[in-house]
Amino acid sequence: MNTQNKTEIKSGIYSKGEIDLTSIIQSIKKDPKIEEAGSIHTFTGIVRRSSQTGKPVISMKIDAYDDLANESISKICSKLKQVKGIIDIKIIHLKGEFELSEDLVYVVVTSAHRKEGFEVISRAVDMYKKEIAVWKKENYKDGSSDWIH
Q1: Residue 4 located in a structural domain
Q2: CATH of the domain at 109
Q3: How far is CA 147 from CA 8, 13, 51, 62, in A?
């Protein structure tokens, strides 16, 4: 896949199957700044079997307004890169059709020390969940579905 062959992977919205966590980490390790790092932290969001209200989920569709979502992701990454000790951050959100336990989002933080890495990865997840233009359609076991932002 073309994206995975590039040296640098950029944060943003990607179609399912276009990118994976291994490719993201390999890209980060090719960056000369990796020599400043003491840790790489990762978060992978996956499809769970129940909605926030407890309804049984069987699958999910993710859609995004790519330009707006990419702009928001870029702003989050720029802001969090200013935290002392943070070397790089990647937020990759996937879109498409997903089954239970499939990957939806990757957040990867490279930091000089583990403490700031753990703190920033948590902040990054909180920020992207509130700020990016991504919608999910949960398909339920009873045949119904809901679009959720």
Answers
A1: no
A2: 3.90.1170.40
A3: 33, 18, 11, 9
